[in-house]
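Entry 14. Two folds queued back to back today. First construct below, sequence then structure tokens.
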Amino acid sequence: MNPQQMKNAKYVLLLRGINVGGHKKVPMADLKKALADLDFENIQTLLNSGNAVFETTQTEEKELVEKISEQLKKTFGFEIPTLVRDFDEIKALIDLDPFQKVNVDKNTRLYVSFLPEKTESNVKLPYVSEKKDFRILLKTDREIFSVLQLETFKSVDAMAFLEKEYGKNITTRNWNTIKKIALK
């Protein structure tokens, strides 16, 4: 079967550490062009934090990560930590609905942290901080679901805790962002 006849698979691209505080600027239009230059199709970006949905005939996640990382370094001139998930995996997270029992108010943040690979930790789940303002509800092989109360616990402290436990190569998204991605 030639490449023209192969069916496209749909993927989600999650970049880490871009467009934060004016550093490592990656305009979404430029990201979209960089992905198009890889012959990806139906590319859609979401927000300014490095989220994209695309289609390709390539199906090896590790190869996609390597290819995209190389293209982004060539395009933007610096390394950008890159994670790729099959679109169906993102939809499965929505179906999992890990936050359904969480009471949400204006200071509550629901986060999904994505791991590049299966990672173990000594954290006993569900984890609850001493002041009960940071919780890890659930961990799958490659995702961590956490809840943060902003009035007493800061996002950067939560991210530092997660990086200490699960490694620096994670990237985190707000649950609302994940729900928007799943609609693409």
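Second construct, same run, same settings:
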Amino acid sequence: MLLFIAACGPTLGLRPGDALPDRLSDLPFQTATDVFPYTPEWPLWSDGLDKERFVYLPPGTHIKTAGLSTFQWRQWQWPDGALLLKTFSLDGEPVETRGLYRVDGEWEYAVWQWADGDATRLSLLETVPVEGAAHTIPDRLACRLCHEVGGGVLGFQPIQIADFSDYRSLFGELPRNQPLDAADPGMDAATREVFGGFVGNCVHCHNGLDGDGHSFDLSPPVALENTLNVSTSSATAAGIRIVPGSPEQSVLFLAVSGEHDDPEIRSMPPLGVDVRDAAQIERLRAWINDL
């Protein structure tokens, strides 16, 4: 259901340089065919809320991927006017819609809060608690910390989209898929689920790039060698990232689960989580116990 299209007028969509409206219903999309819905295979956990995601490009523009390998998706060239939208819903009711908008070669951030059938754009000067839900709408700093460390667009990338042929019109040259288990076709189901949780929630920061926010690489091909019996860095408490057979001694598990009283262990993910993902915690616990 394209919630933001319900009251749109008969215009031809955003053009590069157009400002985003204060009311979400004023986004100028004529029909649902102007935007493409997508679903990452490994979605980001967001306090248990449901999400709808859409990508829009101005007519006649494309994402440029020519000459880039599947591992270089952070270097895709997105055209000005590109807009990605994600609507968060609780019990079937929309709560917020976040926007990632390309302007003059840079990404800008927008968030609209829903009330009475429409959504109003927020200033992003401060976080906004959602009444009746354990969920907080982010401020601009939180948006920047996640997206700039992660390389811009998150979720619409080769390891997350099973078949880009559904989005052929968005690309000048269609990118190839990069299956999570490409480096290990014999990966068992439990490992795949745990690594998928890393992809959805951790790899946009822990991705092996240079910089203080990356720490170490949790990408599937190197996740084991960077965690099993490996000492932590100075970014968190001293210890071992994953101790096979012992979740209670594994700093990575303690950071994800919160099952500790050590103030030096940083909660992970560090942003955007008011309610921990209980199912993922139990998958991680069982997987470590079986190592």
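Quick look at the second one. DSSP finds four helices and eight strands in the chain. The two ends are 42 Å apart (CA to CA).
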